[in-house]
Design a protein that fits this description.
Distance between the termini: 24 Å
Helix content: 55-70%
Radius of gyration: 17 Å
Shape: globular
Oligomer: single chain
């Protein structure tokens, strides 16, 4: 379910990046340090895509919201996961705050679009059944 939904989100994320062509924070700056090993030692940046919107923030928020639909009793930690994934991209200097905000907004728009798709509703119902049948987690 997450893989199919992610494929749907990938198209507008990449189309937006191609349209806006916004450089990442470290590109063109004297300080090119980031937490992302793909950028180390590169003054132009080792990442092959643009910054806006943040794909990581979009996917993290998207996944957290889908999983909240499956397990609403876990909403707080799932939402925190989604937020932290995007916030980490700012801390690591690979995205501007507005990139992260736009990624989350794009995820919300895709969720609204998917919510009325029968195949998505079917996947969501199946995921709830699967989770209800899963054995209880122990020791975590």
């Amino acid at each position: 379910m997450l893989a199919r939904a992610t494929a749907d989100l990938h198209v507008p994320v990449e189309a937006s990046k191609a349209f806006y062509k916004r450089n990442r924070p470290y590109v063109g700056n004297a300080d090119t340090r980031t937490c992302d090993p793909r950028t180390l030692g590169s003054s132009t940046g080792g990442l092959l895509s643009y910054a806006y919107p943040s794909g990581h923030a979009a996917y993290g928020w998207f996944w957290s919201q889908i999983l909240i639909s499956v397990a609403p009793e876990r909403a707080a930690p799932l939402a925190a996961f989604g937020r932290h994934l995007g916030d980490n991209r700012i801390v690591c200097r690979v995205h501007w705050p507005s990139d992260v905000a736009a990624g989350r907004k794009l995820a919300d728009a895709m969720l609204a679009k998917l919510a009325v798709v029968p195949a998505y509703q079917f996947d969501l119902a199946a995921a709830k059944v699967e989770l209800a049948r899963a054995p209880a987690a122990k020791g975590c």
